[in-house]
């Protein structure tokens, strides 16, 4: 009898920590305690951070690789199509159908060895996964909403899944269901990597490749955005002088994607709830601030996604309508003051698909 009671008491003592681990956050949701969803994300991010980097797939030293540059194409080809050249991972973040999937199909056509697609679709919305290159590219997704850190979490999930899925993924382009390409895939790939010899450098010297993300420090309502969670809430991790804003949509090099997944310090601040939701756009603050504090010289400080904020309403940019679609508009949207012309543009209404498809071959993808 005594032995049975002792065994029962011991079992309860051993079980108590597990019960507290799973149920304490629900009973007492302290702002610094991660919930179950975040614990799932953290496990995913740890796996992605521990994943092999693409450079380890090529056991050449920097010197040996440089001396073998002339014979590189033949050697590289023998390593297999999955890792023969660095790839671009397209991360679709959406809460509705991918209206422009036929246009993206044309964009990707003939380049299957050089890209991957991943979709994070809000499970609370109606979403019909498209066929073709988008088939079976939906990752485990969670609810997203404006003025909350959920869009940051969704982007991080996309980055983690892409890193785990294919070690050859080198650039990670975050786009939405309202984004359309402004150039051909070949144009974009060559602009980023150059020819096959140059592309090999992505594995040898990844640090020379920048991330394309908007980082701004002179926005007129910067302080209101900084204090959206409370006057001193961001301190001491993020001083006002370190706080940055920028476009939600970016193209990150792999080293910066990994940095985003490994971050815990800033995330503890940016996942806190917003008090002033009119000035709170966490997804436009977190990534620019983190990368500005971590590696400002490794970032372009500009985005490759064109957005028209003329006549914006309630935080949404101009929404293009079918009657606005023309070759002249495409040429205008491509224009940039940076080193590259814009690769993508948003925001387009679903009805724009037909007129865009009509000019796809002769305008959009002819460059």
TrEMBL record:
This protein's UniProt keywords: Glycoprotein, Glycosyltransferase, Membrane, Transferase
Membrane topology, record value: Single-pass type II membrane protein
Domain of life (superkingdom): Eukaryota
Chief place where the protein resides: membrane
Keyword Transferase found: yes
InterPro entries membership: BC10-like, Glyco_trans_14
GO molecular function: glycosyltransferase activity
Compartment(s): Membrane
GO cellular component: membrane
UniProt xrefs under PANTHER family: CORE-2/I-BRANCHING BETA-1,6-N-ACETYLGLUCOSAMINYLTRANSFERASE FAMILY PROTEIN-RELATED, CORE-2_I-BRANCHING BETA-1,6-N-ACETYLGLUCOSAMINYLTRANSFERASE FAMILY PROTEIN
The name this protein goes by in its record: Glycosyltransferase BC10-like
Native species: Rhodamnia argentea
Gene that specifies this protein: LOC115755709
């Amino acid at each position: 009898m005594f032995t049975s009671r002792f065994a029962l008491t011991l079992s309860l003592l051993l079980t108590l920590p597990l019960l507290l681990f799973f149920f304490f956050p629900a009973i007492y949701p302290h702002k610094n305690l991660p919930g179950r969803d975040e614990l799932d994300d953290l496990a995913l991010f740890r796996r992605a951070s521990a994943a092999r980097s693409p450079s380890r797939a090529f056991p050449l030293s920097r010197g040996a690789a440089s001396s073998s540059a002339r014979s590189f194409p033949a050697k590289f080809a023998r390593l297999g199509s999955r890792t023969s050249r660095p790839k671009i991972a397209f991360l679709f973040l959406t809460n509705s159908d991918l209206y422009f999937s036929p246009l993206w199909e044309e964009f990707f056509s003939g380049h299957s060895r050089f890209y991957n697609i991943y979709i994070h679709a809000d499970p609370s919305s109606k979403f019909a996964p498209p066929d073709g290159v988008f088939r079976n590219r939906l990752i485990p997704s969670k609810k997203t909403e404006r003025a909350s850190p959920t869009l940051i979490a969704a982007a991080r999930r996309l980055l983690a899944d892409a890193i785990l899925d294919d070690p050859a993924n080198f650039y990670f382009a975050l786009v939405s269901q309202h984004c359309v390409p402004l150039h051909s895939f070949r144009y974009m790939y060559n602009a980023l990597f150059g020819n096959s010899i140059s592309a090999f450098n992505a594995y040898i010297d990844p640090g020379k490749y920048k991330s394309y993300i908007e980082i701004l420090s002179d926005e007129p309502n910067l302080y209101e955005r900084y204090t959206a969670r409370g006057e001193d809430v961001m301190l001491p991790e993020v001083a006002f002088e370190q706080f940055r804003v920028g476009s939600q949509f970016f193209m990150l090099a792999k080293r910066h994607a990994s940095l985003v997944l490994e971050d815990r310090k800033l995330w503890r601040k940016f996942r806190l709830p917003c008090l002033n939701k009119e000035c709170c756009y966490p997804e436009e603050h977190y990534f620019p601030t983190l990368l500005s504090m971590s590696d400002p010289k490794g970032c372009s400080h500009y985005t490759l996604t064109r957005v028209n904020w003329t006549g914006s309403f309630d935080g949404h940019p101009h929404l293009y309508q079918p009657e606005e679609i023309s070759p002249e508009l495409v040429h205008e949207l491509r224009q940039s003051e940076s080193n590259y012309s814009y690769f993508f543009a948003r925001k387009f209404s679903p009805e724009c698909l037909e007129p865009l498809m009509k000019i796809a071959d002769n305008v959009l993808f002819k460059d």
